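User: I've been going back and forth on whether these two constructs are worth ordering. Before I decide, could you fold them both?

Assistant: Sure. I'll take them in the order you sent them. The first construct and its structure tokens:
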Amino acid sequence: METRGVLESGEESSVVSTESGAESKMLESVESGVESRALKCGKPAESLESNIQKIMDFLIKNPIQILSSVKILESNAESTQNLDSTTNPDSATNLSSKIPPNMGIFAPSSRPFGSAMLLKNKIWYCLNNDKPTFREISANPNICICACGADRSWIRIYAKAVFCDDLEAKEVYLKRPANSFKSLNDPRFSVFYLAQIRAEIHTKGEIEYIEIV
């Protein structure tokens, strides 16, 4: 796995230093007439363990996160019929002309989630596999997780959910007081970990990027 962290400052451009001790270079660019914010890339990339722990520390301090997945609302035919034709008479016609008849309409689906844990350098979650969340993530494993702290710092994590029947992870969850599963063999019991992580930690106007691929 490769991991790297980048800090973005909202103020002045930063100097980028190479590891070989070569002369510093200034990164400046202009986009639409406005100076872009520079990337401070001078320090070496942090280790996998350090970056995973940094993300996990934030999740521990803010144990209720919002997990967003993608769901299919209805079939195209059903969805277009339910649009408010009184407000926009042409909306149903315009929409149905753009979406193939056999394709549903996709929408974000969010809910509170509070089962994050760290095990074997991976961030894990558990859930009941008889819930819509499981069906949505199984159909499209690309998810987003957000959490906000009392100091207004917040994190956004883009990742791929990888379901895995890991007995060690399940054993940890079974020991939790709020656990609703009866045993390791409970047919409703599923766990997944986060892969291909791209995270942003926002703190007092600064953004730290962490990528674990």
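The second construct, handled the same way:
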Amino acid sequence: MLGSNPVPGAKHKHNDYWYNLCMPHIHTADGQHDFTVGAYIIRQDIEMPKALLHLHKRSGMLFPIGGHIELNETPWQALAREIAEESGYDFSQLMVLQPQNGLRTLSDVTAHPIPVVISDHDVSSTHFHTDLAYAFIADDFPTNNIDKSESQDLRWLTLDQIKTLNVDIIYPNTKEIYTFIINTCLKDWDRISVNKYKL
């Protein structure tokens, strides 16, 4: 997920400088939206669940894994690509969390997993992102290397650790989504193999 609502008084907030410096965009006309995906990955094979965040190279902010959905991609394909590039996880290492009794398949079209939340936020005064946030479970460390062009600063943090971070390093909505995933989705949602869904 790239970008979040600006926080008053925050050291790093989205504005036109951020937009021009950090964010390659697909739609560039005023008022247009790019679609992005966010992968909120939780390790549960340890004593206490830990959430994956990476330090954005240019903004200096902690984000979940994620990025733009390219014009030739579905959201699910974008997730697989971004997860491989930014975390080193092979997509097959992960389970996706889905609401119980959710609609998993359709007879004549391809069904994709349901996001935890879909949100809109301004990246600049004239450009916007619509982000689809998904929850994943990992039971091991990544098997591959992070792409050399991506941030190498990955951090596994407990929910308590995330809650202590201030707005200079993490946006409130990132905290809120990870809180919901750890407190609700881990207990109440089904774990589904990512291979159940077509790339």
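Notes on the second construct follow. The first strand starts at residue 33 and ends at 43. The chain has a mean pLDDT of 87.
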